[in-house]
Design brief:
By secondary structure, the chain is an all-alpha fold. Helix content is about 70%, strand content about 0%. The longest helix is centred in the C-terminal third of the chain and has 28 residues, at about 205-230.
Length: about 300
Amino acid sequence: MTPPTDFTLWSQTLCKTLEDFLQQHLPDTSIVPQRLHEAMRFAVLDGGKRVRPLLAFAAGELVEAPVASLTVVAASIELIHAYSLVHDDLPAMDNDTLRRGKPTCHVKFGEALALLAGDTLQSLAFQWLSEFSLHPDPRQQRFMIHQLAIASGSRGMGGGQAIDLESIDSSLSLPELEAMHLKKTGALIRAAVLLGASCGQPLTASEQRHLSNYANTLGLAFQVVDDVLDAEMDTTALGKTAGKDAAANKPTYVSIMGLSQAKDFSRELLRTAHESLVPFSPRCRRLEELADFIVNRRS
C-alpha cells in the first residue's frame, strides 16, 4: 500500500495503526487483576500526540523497514513514555492532577495502583520488544532492547528526572539544563529514532551520526517548546496544568533565557535538525515534517 502523501493523513493513519495494536495487545480489563489492567489501559489509550511512535515510523521509512516491526517498536516506546508520565504525575514527583485532558492515573485509581501501572507498562514494553520478531538478525533486536533500556534508565530518562528533582529551588547553567534534558526528554526521543532506523537496512556510520544529531537536537527543541508553552498557554489548551514549573521554582529555558530568546533558540534547533537530515534527502520528508510539527505546536 502506498503511504499517504499528506503529513496529517500519514500521521493519523499510523496513529490508528498504533492504537489498534495497543487495544489488541494491552491486557484486557476482564483479566485478573482487572483494576490494574484498567489503569494500564487508561494511561496509554486515547491520548497524546504520539510524537515518539511517529518518529520511530518516520525513521523506519529511511531504511525501508516493515510497518509490522515498526508498530511493535512504536508501541513499546509509547508504553515507556506513558509509564514515565504516570510516575511523573505522582504526588512524590510533580504532583499533577491533569494529563492529556483527563485526570491523572493516581487521581482516578489511587497512588498505589498508579505506581504499579507504571511499573507494569515498563516491563510490558520490553516483553513486546523481545517476543515479536522485529529483524532477521537477532543482534539487531538485542540492540533495540539495549538502547531502550539505556534510554529509560539512570543514564537516560530516569537520571534526567532525578536531576530535575534535585534542581528545584536551585539555579542551573544553560549547559547543565541541556545535559539534564538530553536525558529526561531527549533520551526517549533519540531511542525512538534509533530503534525505528534499526528495523530495516543498515545505515553507514556517517548516517548514524547524522541521525543521532537530528534526534538529540530535536529532543532539546521539544523541551524548549514545552517550556515556552508552559509559560504562554493555559491549562485547557495544554491538557495539563499550565505554569507548574514556575510554581515549583524549576529551572527552565524560559527562566534562564527569557521567553523571546527561548523561542529563537527553538527555531535555531529546528534549523540544526533539518541540516542533520540533508544526507538522507529526499527519504527524510517525514522526519523533517515531524521536526516542524514539534517546534510549531501549540499544545
